[in-house]
Amino acid sequence: MSENVTAFNIKEKVSTLLKDSLEQPEIENLINEIHSYFRELIQLTGFDQNMEHLAAVTTAKGKALGLNHAAQCLLDYKRTVKFLKAMVTAIKEKQQNPPDKTINIFYAGCGPYAPFVTLIAPLFSPEEVQFSLLEINNKSLEYAKTLIQKLELTNYVTNYYNTDAVTFKVPEPEKFHILFSETLDALLYRECYVPILFNLLPQLPKDITVIPENVLVKMSLATNTITDAKHTSVEIDTVLNVRKAISSNETNTIPTQLPDKKIAVNSINIEEYNYLLLDTLVHVYNDIWLTRSESSLTLALEMHIEHPINFGSIVFTYLMDSNIELKYRLEE
Asked: Which of 134, 244, 268, 299 is most buried, with most CB under 10 Å away?
């Protein structure tokens, strides 16, 4: 590697990030250093006001993040570290059975920094891991290619695809061991994680490792707001379980919506509570989870409950057409 690349030792910094003993300020300093380095290499701040960089990209179902927002995901500190730990653990586990094989990773939605190539690849050899990158935003993919070239990691990448992961047909799907798709937001709003899995999982081997492994949306009730020191919440039910929804789909097409989830309120004493909470829990891998407020992905939605209660049920519907969103309605 050239001197200017090795002067900034990504392998050393990522190895430090993976240590369980690291304190949060140290984590943030390391990720900020990496972000600054990537920004300098490809001249992309992630914070400019260029409309081309700000605009979201329409997909077959939902939208993909604009280039700037995708770049900023690296600075979601706990999210970045937990995904890094999950990826490294998954690769090492896949290497065990059988040993000495190349682990092929399909990376859907890599963004301009492709962090789970540019940070992961230096920990392994090209004989150990190979990546296929997919990105719908052409500008993002070009930035990712440039960064990978400048980091001298091109021999880790088998393919680049500039296309929509919601409709993409995977060449040689049987060769892949890991599917990585960090294409989600809180409450699975707007972004394409769910339809991407609906499209890609049936094509890939049954023993494929998926990161993040699953996403749950749970409903809770509380007497006080989240910001109140007296706040406690009582979990009521799971509104949405993504992997369960996909496994129960009996067609080869992506549905326009998931089956309704109906929660009867008279059986849960809703009159005693003042707030309804919806939490997004991201099951990253094995025992690695992102929980409430650890990431922008897991910010809770808090809704005030009007009294007296004049409805008997809350019905949740997850829509997956041109707009992707979780909606609810009240029924008597």
From this structure: 134
